[in-house]
Amino acid sequence: MKKHTLTALPRQILGRKVKQLRKEGQIPATVYGKNVKSVSIAVSGDVFEKVYKQAGKTGLIELTLGSDVRPVLINTVQFHPVTRDVLHVEFRQVDLKEKVKANVPLELVGEAKAVTDKMGVLLTILDWVEVEALPTDLPENIKLDVSELAQVDDELKVKDLKAPSGVAILDDGELTLVKVGALVSREAEVQAAEEAAKKAAAEA
After folding, report:
1. Environment class of residue 72 by beta-carbon count within 10 Å: exposed (0-12), middle (13-18) or buried (19+)?
2. Among 107, 30, 96, 32, which residue's Cα sits nearest to residue 60?
3. In terms of DSSP bridges, do strands 176-182 and 155-157 run parallel, antiparallel, or are they unpaired?
4. Model pTM?
C-alpha cells in the first residue's frame, strides 16, 4: 500500500475569516473521528491537491500535526461551484485495528464485446461500491472486467466483483453495476423525440 503523508498546522481562524487563509494558499480543514476531539487545522493547498489526486478517499494518510502523527482518510472535500477550488476538507481519523466503511470507485477493465462489435453501448449504472475493511486494507479501486459482455442487456452485478483479501463488499449483490444498452442511431433518437412531441401535443 502506497504511503501518503501530509503536514497540517493548528488553525485559530474560523468562520468567514478563513478567506484570508485561502488567499495565502492554505485550505481550512477539520480532523474528527470516533472518540477523537474535533480539531481545526490548515493544510497547504498545492500539497493537498497532489495527495488527494493519489490517495482519493480510500488511501490512508499520515497527517502530521505538531508532534502527533494521525492516520486519516479524506472524508469530504468541498469545492467552489464555479472555480472548483478546494474550500474545505474533512479528515476522518481512524484506528488502524478497527474496520471502517468507505466508498471505493470501480475501474472498468477491457472493452465490452458488444461495443467492439457495434451491437450496443456500455452503460455505467454505479461508479463505486461500499466496502468494509481495515484502513490499511482499503483498495484504491476495485477492477471489473467487462470484456465478456457480448449482447444487449448483458450486465454485471455487485456479486460479480472479486473483492481483495480482507475487504467485504456491503452493497446488495443483485445491484447492477454496468449493462449493455441498445445502440440507438441519431435518426432513431430524432424520430422518438418527434413521436413524443406529437403525443404530448395530442394529449394537450
Report:
1. buried
2. 96
3. antiparallel
4. 0.77
The DSSP line for 80-133 is -TTT--EEEEEEEE--TTS-EEEEEEEEEES--HHHHTTSEEEEE--SEEEEEE
C-alpha cell belonging to residue 36: 477523537
Residues 58 and 74: their CA atoms lie apart, in Å, by: 7
The closest alpha carbon to 178, from 102, 114, 101, 103, belongs to: 114
Per residue in 93-127, pLDDT (tens digit) is 999 999 999 999 999 999 999 999 988 889 999 99
Residues 52-59: contacts with CB within 8 Å, 24+ apart?
52/77, 52/86, 54/2, 54/4, 55/2, 55/4, 55/140, 56/105, 56/140, 57/102, 57/103, 58/102, 58/103, 58/104, 58/138, 58/139, 58/140, 59/2, 59/4, 59/138, 59/140
pLDDT, one tens digit per residue, over 120-154 is 889 999 999 999 999 999 999 999 999 999 999 99
Place of cell 475501474: 107
- 86 touches 49 (CB < 8 A): yes
